[in-house]
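Cont'd.
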Amino acid sequence: MTKILLAGFTGSMGQKAITMINETEGFELSAVYSPRANQSAADYGLADSVSVYNQLADIDSDADIWLDFTTPDSVYENTKFAIEHGFHPIIGTTGLTDDQESELIQLSKDKQLGGLIAPNFGLSAVLLMKFAKQAAEYFPDVEVIEMHHEDKKDAPSGTALSTAKMINEVRKPHEQGDSKETMPGVRGGDYNGIRIHAVRLPGYIAHEQVLFGGSGEALTIRQDSFDRSSFMQGVKVAIKNVKNLRELVVGLENLL
Ligand SMILES: NC(=O)C1=CN([C@@H]2O[C@H](COP(=O)(O)OP(=O)(O)OC[C@H]3O[C@@H](n4cnc5c(N)ncnc54)[C@H](OP(=O)(O)O)[C@@H]3O)[C@@H](O)[C@H]2O)C=CC1
Ligand SMILES: O=C(O)C1=N[C@H](C(=O)O)C[C@H](O)C1
């Protein structure tokens, strides 16, 4: 039985994860954490055996896995806590800086503890990033548009940033258009010359387009998550395989 501690259990992803865990043979939800939790497990519709925590420092659990869908502000502290206490971290929460990520990877190596940071658990997004990196070798002129629900706390999305980083690994650096902005920010964010545009609208869940332009032609790669269930297969794969790793790795593709 794989025991799971779920951080951010009251959130949109947390609720989907609870359903997935309860429906998966061999998985057991053993603890949940959210800072504003103030009711019993039963009040949250959870089994009595599930421990409910609202303070990081109080967590005392024999869970194997720390599954995190919380907030960009808390993810670093949570992940550090998880590694220091021997939980295999599976981090879906976005917003870790490069420095924080490097520090956490080093900490996991010191402890020889496997874990995963996945900017996106959806197969369509993982493939989009892979294909975009491939295409960028031939089409260095590229812009990224990500579209999300209006409650999303961070911009750009972790997936868009990760896409830009992967493209940046192979793209020949060059200037791409020199329009003067007559409205501040209208050309979007800038990751090493790769423009990222973030759209927030009701009705949307999580979507991304990578637009490549060439001489007289264009290539557009798009993925859509129409429902948060799209992320759960990837979370399941991560929970089943993370124990085989000996350090924190970035990207679900490392476990597929
Ligand atoms: N990797 C992936 O595939 C995906 C990643 N995500 C990412 O997951 C994260 C959560 O998304 P979503 O569920 O939509 O967000 P929600 O806002 O719906 O949920 C956030 C959760 O975090 C909790 N929380 C708030 N503050 C803290 C804190 N200081 N410490 C710990 N927990 C806290 C909230 O608890 P409370 O109710 O008590 O405030 C709530 O349970 C985001 O970063 C999002 O980008 C989302 C979808 C897919
Ligand atoms: O907040 C979300 O919803 C999502 N967050 C992740 C991100 O920032 O890339 C993954 C997915 O896009 C949904």
